[in-house]
Structures are given as structure tokens and as C-alpha cells.
Automatic annotation (TrEMBL):
Protein name: TatD-related deoxyribonuclease
Keyword Metal-binding found: yes
Keyword Hydrolase: yes
Positions contributing to a divalent metal cation 1 binding: 6, 8, 96, 205
Residues annotated as binding a divalent metal cation 2: 132, 155
Family assignment from sequence similarity: Belongs to the metallo-dependent hydrolases superfamily. TatD-type hydrolase family.
PROSITE patterns according to UniProt: TATD_3
CDD domains linked to this entry: TatD_DNAse (cd01310)
PANTHER family found in the cross-reference section: D-AMINOACYL-TRNA DEACYLASE
GO function terms (MF aspect): hydrolase activity, acting on ester bonds; metal ion binding
Keywords linked to the UniProt accession: Hydrolase, Metal-binding
Length: 262
């Protein structure tokens, strides 16, 4: 079985065929799909979707790209939603949170504020985090250290080996997906090949970060299985070993996911 640890199945790109996409993933051996929240307006949506599809799970958070339209009161709502979700077996953590220095228009102080406030919530509720780390690995890691967070996923990891090792030392797993299927993505492929297997989880970030065979097309959670084939080939291991390893890693990163699976 495979776990897609990061899929925006609530995105508008899936409005026409969302249930069919989820069913195709399940048929492809993707037993769990983690749907992260991105803003106050979609908290209820991701929760309902996780309960509707086979293998659904969800996280709640305010994504750095959504901080320009977020209000301070959204953090109060987020805290209330987290508290209300603690008895829900499909709720697995806080995310997608983090920092983004790829988009130049984002206000640094504003996104740092939301990131740090959400790390405080992770500490308060003893929950793992799913972190957006685009061109922000060092500052995201600093926040994890300051707030003593030792569990979660650095999503779509594309840093250096030194940064990877620092995240691993902090207790985080690193998410890999469609990018590793491109032969020109030398750094990501080296990371995915050479890092310890117990540091790696699989993801799609669907509908984004499509694998090479879907270049510039919509990505979907069913692609985890084929992305895993590429990763197994790169690492020189069989797919069953990769499945067992990455499933255990996802459960270690998001412990409530393991409880929901039992």
C-alpha cells in the first residue's frame, strides 16, 4: 500500500471528478490520502472530504501563500477547529504551514507571524506539522527548533544534504513526489536516492508537481504508485520494501494516521 502524505484534493481542478480521482487512487493501491488545509475558508471542506473518500485524512493550517488575506482572528478559529478535531480519528496534524521565499510579494513579517503562531498551536496540542519549505528551509527549521517541534513532514523537500540532515535530526521526515521523476532534477534525485530510507515519505501535492509523464497536466493521488516505482529503481530496492518503509515513515511523522489505519 502507498500513502499520499500531501494532496490538495479539495482544489478546484478536481471539481468535475473528485470522487472518481479518489477511487482511482484507492484502486492503484493508495490506501491513505492526507488533505492539508490552507486557509480558514477550507477547514470544513477538507474535513468533510476526508470523511467522504476511502482512506481520507486531513490536517488544518494556514498556508503561507494565503497569509495576505488571512486575519489574526483566523488563528482563533484555527485553534477552535483543532480542539474540535482532536477526537476525530481522521485528523492528523497542523498543516500546511510554513514559509515561502519563492513568491516575492509575500510580506515576510506576516508569514513569519502566522508560521510561529501555528507552531505554538502544534506545541499546545502536541501535534505534528506539515511544512511548506520553498526556498525557506533554514528559517522553517529555525522555527521548529525555537518551538521544540520534533515530528512532521518537510513537504516537497528541495534543499541541500546539510539541510536535509538538519531536518532529519529535528525528527522530521522529508516529502518527495513528482519532481524526482525528472532526469534533470539531479539534486532531488540524489537526495531521494542517498538519504536514509526512514527519512522519506511519498506525496503528490496534487493537482500540482506532476510527474514527468504528466508534465504540465493535472497531477492526481493515484500517481503515488508510479512515482514509487521510480524511487524504488533509483534506490535499487523492490517496491514492497519501499512501500513498507514509506508507510512506516508516514505513520511516524503523523502518528494519528497510524491510529486511523488500525
Amino acid at each position: 500500500m502507498w500513502i499520499d502524505t500531501h494532496c490538495h484534493l479539495d482544489a478546484g481542478e478536481f471539481d468535475a471528478d473528485r470522487d472518481a480521482v479518489a477511487a482511482a487512487a484507492f484502486d492503484a493501491g493508495v490506501a491513505r490520502i492526507v488533505i492539508p488545509g490552507v486557509e480558514r475558508g477550507n477547514f470544513a471542506t477538507v474535513r468533510a472530504l476526508a470523511h467522504r473518500i476511502a482512506g481520507g485524512a486531513y490536517a488544518l493550517g494556514i498556508h503561507p501563500l494565503f497569509t495576505p488575506r488571512a486575519s489574526d482572528d483566523d488563528l482563533r478559529v484555527l485553534r477552535e477547529e483543532i480542539a474540535a478535531s482532536m477526537d476525530d480519528p481522521l485528523f492528523v496534524g497542523i498543516g500546511e504551514i510554513g514559509l515561502d521565499y519563492f513568491v516575492p510579494s509575500l510580506d515576510d513579517a506576516r508569514q513569519q507571524f502566522f508560521y510561529n503562531e501555528q507552531l505554538k498551536l502544534a506545541r499546545e496540542f502536541d501535534l505534528p506539522v506539515i511544512c511548506h519549505v520553498r526556498k525557506s528551509q533554514d528559517k522553517v527549521l529555525k522555527g521548529l527548533r525555537v518551538h521544540d517541534i520534533h515530528r512532521g513532514i518537510a513537504h516537497a523537500f528541495n534543499g541541500s544534504f546539510q539541510q536535509a540532515e538538519a531536518f532529519i535530526a529535528q525528527g522530521m521526515r522529508l516529502g518527495f513526489g513528482g519532481n524526482l521523476t525528472f532526469e534533470r532534477a539531479l539534486q532531488i534525485r540524489r537526495l531521494a536516492t542517498d538519504l536514509p530510507l526512514d527519512a522519506i515519505v511519498l506525496e503528490t501535492d496534487a493537482p500540482d508537481i506532476a510527474p514527468s509523464w504528466l508534465y504540465k497536466q493535472r497531477n492526481a493521488p493515484e500517481q503515488v504508485a508510479r512515482i514509487a516505482q521510480v524511487l524504488a529503481q533509483l534506490r535499487g530496492i523492490d517496491e514492497n520494501a519501499l512501500s513498507l518503509g514509506t508507510t512506516a515513515n508516514a505513520h511516524a511523522a503523523l502518528p494519528r494516521l497510524a491510529l486511523a489505519s488500525s
